Amino acid sequence: MMWFKRKAPIVHVAKALVLRYQDIPEKTDKRLVTSAYPQSHSAIPASSLQTICSRYADQLHELIDALPFSAQQIDEIVMPVLQRVIELIHLLPASEVHHHSGVGGCLLHQLECATETIKLIKDKTFRGGETLEENYHNKNRILLAAVLVALTHDVGKIFDVRVVDANDHEWEPEKESLMQWLARLKLEEYFVTWHVDRQHKSHQVRSLRLAYGRVFTPQLIHFLDAYPHSRLLCKFDDAVALGTGPFADVLRQAEEISIKHDAEVRRHLLGQYAQASSPLIQPMLTAMLENLSQGIWSVNKSASQVFVTNQGTFLLLSEQVVFSVRRKAAEQGVSYLPGTVAGFVRVLAEGDCLQVNPRQEEGRQYIWSIYLKFADVAKRYECLKLVDGQKLFKSGLVPKTINIVDEAEVPQGTGKAPEVDFRAPTGDFIRKNRATREPFDLVTEYGNSNGQELSQRELDEVWRQKPEAEVCQRFIERLCRTLHQQILRGKGSLIAQMQTVSPGRWRVDSTEFEVVLRRHCIETKTVEMLFRMRTKPPFFTFEPNKHFIICREQAET
After folding, report:
1. Are 258 and 273 in contact (CB under 8 A)?
2. Is residue 483 within a helix (H) or strand (E), and if so which, with residue range?
3. Residue 165: what pLDDT?
């Protein structure tokens, strides 16, 4: 299902500024890239289109030369897209403190991802049509669609930044590209700050909107949609906005390669910027040290977060650990640390703080499963192995090591430490009766609150077992009411991404909704059934495979 119209308006550019392949210099001008790091808060030069092409000539040539198109197709289909991307994002960084956070980082990251996509997609099998003939004729279109995902997946980040000139005149990205704004005001430099209230991954839908509205040309759309059964644009939509489908899988691999390359560049570019592979490393390590020194974390106990062993220092891999690090860092004034296990691991890995487990498969290469014995009982823990565990302890306070139990000596059936949900809750993990220290009677608890909105504490609860049918139905009813009210208010923990489809009809990303269901041991199939059984507004359509919910004030006729 298409979210946006495929008719892209023509952005009028002066003839002298129409970019052709022959306009790209043969080699990158190295003098233009020495200021890439550190970004700090210095001014970014208002470079011309020609200057930016000189800055990234090597990357542009590598990308374009890998595309299986004629010179005419390159100039008519590919170059206009590249020009519009450059004009839109100019030399903006890709992030504030993460990868490609220097000048020009966003463009460089997208060019690198696009080039790696071409290499990766050759090992993939995609069927863009219904017949062998269509698949054959669509192979170049499939390749181009995947490249476009890489070239546009981060353009929505222009709404995460505030761009001003020396007189505090602010760029309005809804009205014009950054390059057009710079040319109109005849600026020589500009300054970038990041909005503190931006939401993680919220740029994805905006990237899709910008792709159709500001980047794609009618010629490109016609080329991609030439065959009636190809549905390439639908696959493009799923990848950019939802992060699903075959193109999204390729993009994730390409991003990993680009991010690793950026980390290497940062470490070797400038000596004084040796730790720039991730500026978040130090506040994360400081937060861990404080958790240990203040007794919030323990070491070498059954329920500990850190294990100092004869084979190295290990950090328990759990969302509780991530949450406690993030909370402690916030107390120190650092408010934008990763809130997920995946993000936490990625930052530590980019900072060369983690040892790779050669026995693990791709995607789990930093996970170590170790057995430790406490009270003569062996338990398996999933951990991260730190390169330098002494960084977690003050000088001379490293605990005595314990031995890791050989897996061959562990009796079969030994369980591992309890797992928790992927995202860190903001409240207690399990709500208990203060008097009896037993879990609440859920029937009683929710029977008296039917129809009311759920509090954040209730949303963050983790139930130990599947609820009874009556309890489940009451909880889902309150969850529906909570979701509907957050939609009407336009904000809330369940609606990180929302689009008004038409009056009284909204489309909402269901990721956070699904997290709540997993915490409460409720299957998505159960929710789908209950949604279909609703006889009073609001009405819902739940698509868990595509991760979205449609909310309607009126029943469908």
Report:
1. no
2. helix 469-489
3. 87
Distance of CA 61 to the CA centre of its chain: 28
The answer to whether the beta carbons of residues 117 and 111 sit under 8 Å apart is: no
Residue 544 near residue 523 (C-beta atoms within 8 A): no
pLDDT attached to residue 300 = 92
Contact present, 153 and 204 (Cβ < 8 Å): yes
- Amino acid identity of residue 326, one-letter, is R
Domain locations along the chain: 20-273, 281-409, 442-552
Provide the token pair at 105.
């980082």
The secondary element (H helix, E strand) that includes residue 501 is strand 498-502
- CB burial class (10 A; 0-12, 13-18, 19+) of residue 127? middle
**How high is the mean pLDDT in each 10-residue block of the chain (557 residues)?**
41 58 87 55 81 92 90 92 93 80 88 92 65 70 91 88 87 91 91 69 75 89 75 84 83 87 66 49 86 91 92 90 86 72 79 84 82 88 90 77 83 48 33 35 37 81 78 87 90 83 88 86 83 82 84 78
Its CATH class, for the domain covering 20-273, is mainly alpha
Helix, strand, coil abundance in the chain, percent, nearest 5: 45, 10, 45
Are 213 and 8 contacting, i.e. CB atoms less than 8 angstroms apart? yes
User: Residues with Cβ < 8 Å from 472, sequence gap 6 or more?
Assistant: 466, 522, 526
Q: Is 251:117 a contact under the CB 8 Å cutoff?
A: yes
Sign of the CA dihedral 273, 274, 275, 277?
positive
Distance from CA of residue 506 to its chain's centroid?
Answer: 23
Q: What predicted TM-score, i.e. pTM, was given to this entire model?
A: 0.53
- Looking at residue 192, what DSSP letter applies? E
> Which residue type is seen at 441?
D
SS3 374: strand
CB atoms within 10 A of CB 186: 7
